[in-house]
What does this fold into?
Amino acid sequence: MKAIDLVIKGGTLINASEVIEADIGISDEKIALIGKNLEGKEIIDAGGLYVLPGAVDPHVHLEMPAGITTSSDDWQSGSIAAACGGTTTLIDFVEPENNQSLREAYMLRRQQAENKSVLDFGLHMTITNSEQNTLSQLPDLIEQGITSFKLYTTYTGFKLDDTQLLKVLNAIHKLEALAIVHSENDAIIQWRTQDLLKTDLNNPASHPLSRPETAEREAIHRILSLAEITRAFVYIVHISTRQGAEMVCHARLRGQKAFGETCPQYLLLDHSLYQQPDFEGAKFVCSPPLRKKSDTRALWQALSNGTIQVAATDHCPFFFKGQKDLGKDNFSKIPGGLPGVGLRLSLMYSYGVCGGHLSLNRWVETCSTAAARLFGLYPRKGCLLPGADADIVLFDPHKILTVRKDILHENVDYTPYEGMQLKGYPVMTIKGGKPIAKDGTFLDTKITGKYLARKLPDC
Ligand code: URP
Ligand code: ZN
Ligand code: ZN
It folds into this structure.
């Protein structure tokens, strides 16, 4: 039998389907075996700790161009922040320029990440038109391991109309890939924004009014209808409303391969935060916006009952001073997006498990396993099983902490979760059998992440 390099001893192992007391033996960067009384060259004592598969965050925007600015975490700072918070796999986006082939855009984005990311990463491809010349490139991308395609129903330069959506969804269906969709009705947003700019130009509180929940419900319903017609597998990103979750629930009851994602900001924060004085509300500008408390409750329910499968972050940070204030004189110019990549696992334990919404298994499933399956990484990622990558988190369920911007490694001057109490925090993150973060400190900046060529979705 192969020599074991490292044993993680005496912890409580949590997978999406079981909780067991056992040791994990690691060799050659993989989990070699799981059992009792294992011996190895090195031992890590996990007594009293939960041992989890490294979390998978399938929705982040690192060094993403946004008008005249760029999201403030690059691949290095963003991946370090993620690692310290217990995430070991990231999936970000390729957003091709008009004159670029999809292959060229993918190669450039991959190189950018390979040079800097400390974590393994995958890429989704954004599709901004339905021309044959574009759709004919999809099989090559799937060969390269890009098996999910991002579509938008809003944002100039990105949005697709219904005919375009049908064509693209049809192409995605034929390849058995996954469509992932930002769903808000663009006409409603434009209509409302024009009105608000006449009266409440400078106020971040105009942001949620410009993107009402009806805009989300309508677009999710429409996307699901178009996906039903084309039989495409579809994943709705960042669902923010009860009505949005209901649309996914109804589609699933009709038998559609429809999936949903929400994020800690939509589970834990609400629209009252936009009322803060001194432009502070801008810190919470993201699209879709934060909603009512009743929506947060409905989203917890949807996550707990399986209507929504994934809790991702949509991490897209902008500095309050110097970036969010680009919209000081016009709320519609505030760059949209919130930081959060470093806190997801702990927030979802503190408020999901300790709040009575999620079992331990469901916590791991929503933060790790479901995304690994849907995005073609399972069982390499998202589980503690022999043969899986040894990406492992030791999590102390008793550690009490107050969120402060300074405990995080995100390259941004605030956290939307400032002052929130945490019960439970990752104390060690192991990647490929090597500890890379301990007690909130990153250990090894020389470590590099690998590009993950993903399989088709397991759904
Ligand atoms: O406001 C947000 N969510 N910004 C990030 C880009 C997106 O729409 O997901
Ligand atoms: Zn989006
Ligand atoms: Zn996003």
Summary: The mean pLDDT is 97.
